[in-house]
TrEMBL record:
Transmembrane segments: none annotated. This is 6-phosphogluconate dehydrogenase, decarboxylating. It comes from Auraticoccus cholistanensis. The lineage of its organism: Bacteria, Bacillati, Actinomycetota, Actinomycetes, Propionibacteriales. Coiled coil: none annotated. Pathway: Carbohydrate degradation; pentose phosphate pathway; D-ribulose 5-phosphate from D-glucose 6-phosphate (oxidative stage): step 3/3. It holds the Pfam family NAD_binding_2.
Length: 477
């Protein structure tokens, strides 16, 4: 055996990850794939990598030094289970199986338990950054045992993206913790993209900016607090002219957004955990709505506002939108971190949330200057209940909230949908409220279903005899 690490699955992600591994000092990389041709192609195209090829899982295992470490990069779902089963046949106790696919974290929890029962380590590793990231340096979110991390950690650190001299990888937690955090990352990505899209829509539909002018606005924003990969590519996309028509590309792309499902997982999981991630949910729903061609066509003639409000200070409005975007983004990230907090509690993970923000600073889609502030917030207060109350974000929200309200008001008056901005603002105002109308809802529940209520002024659980004399009785909790 000569290889210290192996990759199973040589489609685009696996090949790139294998090349990244091979390019780092000290690594000899074993590779295999269900279909032999993919192995041959990789070896042929990249002789410089010194890959150790195998055409069966048994040979692959035999080519690895112990503890054997293999990263699976196959289609998430049944393919992953099939490869895990094959590896378990030939691996030995102490070896390490890493799933780098986009697995649902509950699958990872199930697989980790099954593989651990055989004495083999199983690591579910979220990988973000697409093909380019896999090749040049992704953000890596591994979950698994401390024992596995000892062997795997240095290897992952060698291939991860680097931000301010530090590799974008950390041992996130046990079993499904890494894939959970990757899932929330994707949910936040949905929200971030939706908020940017709403900002763009306001610049165009309220101010009448052209895509080129909007591109300038985003390029300008990218020089300040909003500096991020997504803002940067937004400016590039908006500037791009379609070769066929000479129109801005954004005007010829069909306005129906696709999705691969990780955003929905984030929302479904949040519903199960009882965590309000309304900003992320609105982003997922906005994509669904965009793709409902029949409902949209049927609804096109519904009445809208007679006239749009005039904006007499366009530059001021642009700045308001920037502030609204920033504030909404803070809310969306806070919701994502709330979900991580709740997931950690439910599944027993020790997740360092500041570290999570740190490993998202490079390599992944939501990389942004802003993440430094989240890391600092958790570094200063590791037990922070919500990001919103970290002094650095209180300052942001204080500076932005009036502008945020103005933007949502103008959008509502103009009939421009801003589900992300308004959901984030509603979440913010709900959290600020001393009393919520939930009191009324609880009383209604008591009325029709005897669901009982607690009181603000004394301990206990109560029920009002709504269909009787309406006196209050103490109820069983
Ligand atoms: P795909 O998701 O397209 O999967 C193709 C690979 O799966 C091929 O190697 C294929 O082998 C193998 N495979 C299948 Br399909 N069924 C198999 C089975 N029953 N047994 C063994 N191997 C099987 O590849 P990808 O786009 O490179 O993505 C790999 C993983 O990385 C996925 O889980 C994906 O979600 C995740 N991921 C992707 C990105 C991205 O940006 N694309 C980012 C992060 C993570 P074959 O050659 O024999 O058909």
């Amino acid at each position: 055996p000569t290889a210290n690490i192996g990759v199973v699955g040589l489609a685009v992600m696996g090949s790139n990850l294998a090349r990244n591994l091979a390019s780092r000092e000290g690594n000899v990389v074993a590779v295999t794939n269900r279909t032999d041709a993919k192995v041959d192609r990789l070896i042929e195209d990249h002789p410089e990598a010194g890959f150790v090829p195998s055409y069966s899982i048994a040979d692959f295992a035999a080519s690895l030094t112990t503890p054997r470490t293999a990263i699976i990069m196959v289609k998430a779902g049944r393919a992953t289970d099939a490869v895990i089963d094959e590896l378990c046949e030939v691996f030995e106790p102490g070896d390490i199986i890493v799933d780098g696919g986009n697995a649902l974290f509950t699958d990872t929890i199930r697989r980790e338990a099954a593989v651990r029962a055989k004495g083999i380590n199983f690591v579910g590793c979220g990988i973000s950054g697409g093909e380019e990231g896999a090749l040049r340096g992704p953000s890596l979110m591994p979950g698994g045992s401390a024992e596995a991390w000892q062997t795997l950690g240095p290897i992952l650190e060698s291939i991860a993206a680097v931000a301010q001299g530090e590799p974008c990888v950390t041992h996130v937690g046990t079993d499904g913790a890494g894939h959970f955090v990757k899932m929330v990352h994707n949910g936040i990505e949905y929200a971030d993209m939706q908020l940017i899209a709403e900002s763009y829509d306001l610049l165009r539909r309220v101010l009448g900016q052209t895509p080129e002018q909007a591109a300038e606005t985003f390029a300008e924003w990218n020089r300040g607090d909003l500096e991020s990969y997504l803002i940067e590519i937004t400016a590039e996309v908006l500037r791009h002219v379609d070769a066929d028509t000479g129109q801005p590309l954004v005007d010829v792309v069909l306005d129906a957004a696709g999705a691969k499902g990780t955003g929905s997982w984030t929302v479904q999981t949040a519903l199960d955990l009882g965590v309000p991630v309304s900003g992320i949910a609105e982003a997922v729903f906005a994509r669904s709505l965009s793709s409902q061609a029949d409902v949209r066509a049927a609804s096109r003639d519904l009445p809208g506002p007679a006239s749009a409000p005039a904006v007499d200070d366009p530059a001021g409005f642009v700045e308001d939108v920037r502030l609204a975007l920033y504030a909404s983004k803070v809310l969306a990230y806070a919701q994502g971190f709330d979900e991580i907090t709740a997931g950690a509690k439910t599944y027993g993970w020790q997740i360092d949330r500041g570290e999570v923000a740190r490993i998202w600073r490079a390599g992944c889609i939501i990389r942004a200057r802003f993440l430094d502030r989240i890391t600092e917030a958790y570094r200063d207060q590791p037990e922070l209940v919500t990001l919103l109350t970290a002094p650095v974000f209180v300052e942001v929200l204080e500076a932005a909230q009036q502008a945020w309200r103005r933007v949502v008001s103008v959008a509502v008056a103009a009939g421009v949908p801003v589900p992300g901005f308004s959901a984030a603002l509603a979440h913010y105002d709900a959290l600020r409220s001393e009393r919520l109308p939930a009191a009324l809802i609880q009383a209604q529940r008591d009325f029709f279903g005897a669901h009982t209520y607690r009181r603000t002024d004394r301990e206990g659980t109560f029920h009002t005899l709504w269909s009787g004399d309406r006196s209050e009785i103490a109820a069983e909790a």
